Amino acid sequence: MSKFETFKALHDDFLILPNAWDAGSARLMQNAGAKAIATSSAAVAWTHGYADGEAMPPELALATIRAIAGATDLPVSADIEAGYAADAQSAGTRASQVLEAGAVGINIEDGTNPPELLAAKIEAVKKAARHKNANLWVNARVDVYLKRLMSGEAALKESIQRARLYRDAGADSIFVPGVVEPAAIREVAGSTSLPFNALAWPGLPDAAALKALGVRRLSAGSGIAQIAVDRAFALGKAFLAHGRSQDLSGATLTNPDINGMMRK
Prior knowledge:
8 strands; single chain; 49% helix; alpha/beta; eight-stranded parallel β-sheet; 11 helices; TIM Barrel
């Protein structure tokens, strides 16, 4: 079975993705029990010293995908934000590069752009994959809730409309970050035949409850990386202030433990 087929089959049940941001974190997530590796665009950008929001050069994103794909035997899905592309043709070109880097899936988002633009990008991405005789799983991100473009019933209706539009354009799954109400999750998940992807978010039900609501995929997004960055900042600040060695002790994982995880 190819990595794409493996990744596709994981959506038949309930797939949890603890997103990674570099080759080392991908190895950690694999050793933690992940069945696939997804990247977080925010976490990847922070790793390279950039803010989230396509501020990072696309070449760095591609280099990270390549490094992660080379560090793990698991399927890799890459968050490429809005495709690092302003138009559909450029998004198709970027998809070809992502495939060459070793990923079998992508997240691609609409943001504040018209939904028709993302639909065109999805069509171009799928066309580019076919041109390479390859399969590429497209997780289409609906940003109505995340970007607070609408609220209440209007947000729900718009999200459902966009989900259907992206399905018709060729998306393989639908990602609606920021929706947490069980009734809304059930309605969006039930509005399309595609697997529904939820994002870890304050107030979101746990995995068992989400599965019962029709969700098939749960992503950590930047959550794990944000906690890691927060902890590193606090430790660095404390060490600079006091120089206490004991502040840097007490980790559960030892150096040999971590070294062992980094051996492929």
